[in-house]
TrEMBL record:
InterPro entries found in the cross-reference section: AAA+_ATPase, ABC_transp_ATP-bind, ABC_transporter-like_ATP-bd, ABC_transporter-like_CS, P-loop_NTPase
Organism name: Devosia neptuniae
SUPFAM superfamilies the record matches: P-loop containing nucleoside triphosphate hydrolases
Taxonomy, superkingdom: Bacteria
Keyword field contains Metal-binding: no
Pfam families on file: ABC_tran (PF00005)
GO molecular function, one term: ATP binding
Protein name as annotated: Dipeptide ABC transporter ATP-binding protein
Keywords: ATP-binding, Nucleotide-binding, Transport
Keyword Ribonucleoprotein: no
Domain ABC transporter: 6-253
Family listed: Belongs to the ABC transporter superfamily.
């Protein structure tokens, strides 16, 4: 049996604020003993209100922040949090809500895409260029975009560039941290559609962090609901949406009226169909 692409065991992260005069140090239990495993080609959505620990979880599984306790296994191999190897780091990529901040304004998009290959492989320049161009086309941009600068693109196009760059080194999985939250609904649909197409073509594995239930319902295979650092529910999309068990999940869903979810979902699906 193949190992899950990503497995976390008892993953925990505490933050300690330094105290002050008459103010004791305070510990925030941001993520409390989370367990899950994710098979290749699947999408796990992590949902919950602001402050529930989604970003902290994302930072741990992208190996940006070490856990306070617990274990992360990528492709069946345990990560040594105190000594994350270069190879291990390459296996995980993250796409943020607003990719503009991470794009060098003076770097042409072709170079943005080729850079991971330049930094991490001994590939000749001509091949790097060829791969960058191929990826540009895969994410729905054209050859004419290769020599343009980041400011010349729309928000949706920049998100395509961020996805393309994240895929240049064939990562084991992608963490998508609110990747469509800053986009218009029609553009959201195009990006979600693109993510689905890339997943089908390359067997990609996604951890999709979102507070938007309509988006989650559209993209996820599995849904994990977090509440104050705990996972209170984890199951298939059908089970979690169709028959939520935990009172918090029910409250969360009730806060977004079903008719809204359905109508937003229908609009996303329609736009996605038009965009394809
Ligand atoms: N660097 C930090 N130092 C101290 N506390 C932190 C730090 N980062 C996060 N926290 C706390 O940990 C808890 C979880 O925060 P986190 O950002 O992971 O939640 P979130 O669900 O991603 O929220 P949001 O959607 O608003 O980003 C919160 O109580 C937050 O205040």
């Amino acid at each position: 049996m193949t190992a899950p692409v990503l497995e976390v065991r008892n993953l925990t992260r505490d933050y300690t604020s330094s105290g002050g005069f008459l103010r004791p140090a305070k510990v925030v239990h941001a993520v409390k003993g989370v367990n899950f495993s994710l098979a290749k080609g699947r999408t796990l959505a992590v949902v919950g209100e602001s402050g529930c620990g989604k970003s902290t979880l994302a930072r741990m599984i992208t190996l940006i922040d070490p856990p306070t306790a617990g274990e992360i296994l990528i492709d069946g191999k345990p990560v040594d949090a105190g000594h994350v190897t270069h190879d291990m780091r390459q296996k995980v990529q993250i796409v943020f809500q607003n990719p503009y901040g991470s794009l060098n304004p003076r770097q042409k998009i072709g170079d943005v895409l080729a850079e991971p290959l330049l930094l991490n492989t001994k590939m000749p320049a001509a091949e790097r260029r060829e791969r960058a161009m191929a990826m540009l086309l895969k994410v729905g941009l054209g050859p004419e975009h290769f020599n343009r600068y980041p400011h010349m693109f729309s928000g949706g196009q920049r998100q395509r560039i961020a996805i393309a760059r994240a895929l240049m080194l064939n990562p084991s999985f992608l963490v998508l941290d609110e990747p469509v939250s800053a986009l218009d609904l029609s553009v959201q649909a195009q990006i979600l559609n693109l993510l689905k197409d890339l997943q089908d073509e390359f067997g990609l594995t996604y951890v999709f962090i979102s507070h938007d239930l309509s988006v989650v319902r559209y993209i996820a295979d599995e849904v994990m609901v977090m509440y104050f650092g705990d996972v209170v529910e984890h199951g298939s999309r059908e089970d979690v949406f169709g028959n939520p068990q935990h009172s918090y999940t029910k409250t969360l869903f009730a806060a977004t009226p079903k008719s809204d979810v359905e109508s937003i979902r229908a609009r996303i699906a329609k736009k996605a169909a038009l965009a394809s």
